[in-house]
Design brief:
Largest sheet: 10 strands, mixed
Number of strands: 20
Strand content: 5-15%
Structural class: alpha/beta
CATH class of the largest domain: Alpha Beta
Radius of gyration: 28 Å
Number of helices: 22
CATH topology of the largest domain: sialyltransferase cstii, chain A
Amino acid sequence: MKKYENKKLFTTNIKYLSKSHPQFLTIFDSVNLTTNLVIDDNGEYDIDVGAGQLLYGNNSKGAAERQVQNYMDSPARYHSALASPTDRASWNYVDNDSPLVTFLEKMENKLMTYPDASSTFDPSKSVGFLFVFGLGLGFHIEFLAKVLKFRCLVIIEPHDQILLHNLHVMDWETFGKGLTDRGQDIIFIRGENLFDQFLDAAHSKNYPFLGGSYLYSHYDMPELTELMSEISKKTAFIFAALGWTEDQLQMFRNSSINLSSPGFYLQETLSNSIRTLPAIVVGAGPSLDKNIETIKRYQDDAVIISSSSSISALLANNITPHIHCALENIESLGLVLENLSKKHDFSNITLFASFTVNERAAACFKRTVYFFRRDIAASHFFSKGGIHTELAEPLTGNTALLCALSFGFKEVYLFGLDFGARTSEIHHSQHSVEFAYNDDYSTPFEFETSVPGNFGGTVNNGWLLEFSRIRANLAIEYFENVVARNCSEGAYIPSAPPLDHNSLAIPHSSTTPEKEIDAALLNLTYCEKGPFKVERLSQFQKDCQNFLDTCINITKATRTEDLMSGLIINSICEKIIEEHNLWAEKEPAVHSLFKGDIQTVISTIHHYTLIKTIKFDNKVISEISYVLENYLRKLGELVEARINLIIETSTRTNR
């Protein structure tokens, strides 16, 4: 074996790949090679991973071909869970007459089956992705591309050294043009944070066709093994709700009222001047009950920021937060705050909230600061220039943390932000019951996982709590020069090292929490008059109907009673997704309004068409086509009725 390189091919590959993947221009600048590409006397390539140990061992191309042949005998496929009508009917603002619930019921009734993990997929049908774990020299990828039907190739390779060696062997220009000719895309996942990159790839434009996608493991490496384990354990992250139309419309309603009312602040940027006092961010985790006296001790020397039901716990202990935070858009949240404000004095509390919260909330507080959430229709519609943030989600504890960080507080202490619990029976502060509007706090939680505890041991949590913990860590890292300490007895947060609440020492300051908040508000936009114009909703309504009419026409034009096949259904699905993706640029609010429902509908149809045991004769395919068309019409009627109500409500508010 001797070292090998093909500089001409390497240069050609870099030039070709960098057109669509600019990172290829620079990723090899800092690679420190500890492995070598080698070739034997027969012209067979391999990679010496150190001390003469070869990655393939003998005949790398032949080994790759045999591996692919073995894989094809029993290919690993990704089983995505289908939405059930019963589950969807239980979601906020959704009932049994919902167009989506009706669609899901009709699909079950027409096909008389419900696909699950035991269902056998038809290999002749195209899927969304081919996920390849390990690039190697690429021979296996070329073989797989010839025998599998997919829309997007995702190559996962954590080691840039292997990627570099590959570019001296594999002709990417020829291979890539073959993919392009077949209408296939390619995504590279490399380096660190592999699972986050996997999520981004899975949620790309082919997400509705994720079901049945291929999972191919080329070789064992710790990073790849860990990633595959994460994919298996964290399916909820992959199928997290993308929003649904009824909920999006409710946020539209709330936003139109909130932004029509005069006298509020808008957070259009996350930058702010630096505060001098520390902030104490309070969640409603069970550990809050153990250290609430520490918060009381410093209520005049720090800005106390409550989240959701933690305000109830604070007030019950004679602590009035300086800022309260709200995220959810449900009406019961407004009612609970309204009732609580009648028992306690809210006159000096500032509300920091998503602009989509129920309008009753703002009326309870001294003043309101609204922020724009990311990837929701209302944010795209009402804010064309301001920042849309995801750091305030998924739970209100994240909202409170973002409030502290975005207001310029550089010294932040976390209390009751547990992101889990030691036991399933005690998962909230005992004083949270008075605030319960969405949860029965007396019901034990069903935790799916456990994570390291802030003060050692482990803490039980689930996918949503874990998502919230990860997002909290990212928020702290996002802002510069922040010193955050976690006094909660819950989950460990890397960016907020543990601090025993008994060790907390905040010196007295000449400034006051009220002055600090006033200084932060100077950097926000004050709206004496709501900026919302009701007339814009009429155009939005027309845009929504234009999208749905186009989808209906796609369904009708592609449908022919005398010549129906599964390919026709796939064609309808692909064209609807293409049309939906066009609206991401044309009018993002329309795209976001329908995103969750359209992707659910298309992924459901796609999943059914993959099942080998379902016979798709002309009658079945025709019925599916009509079910889809009826769904689109009913969805249009729902949107028209809801937007008309929003226009009426907003008109009354503006009088």
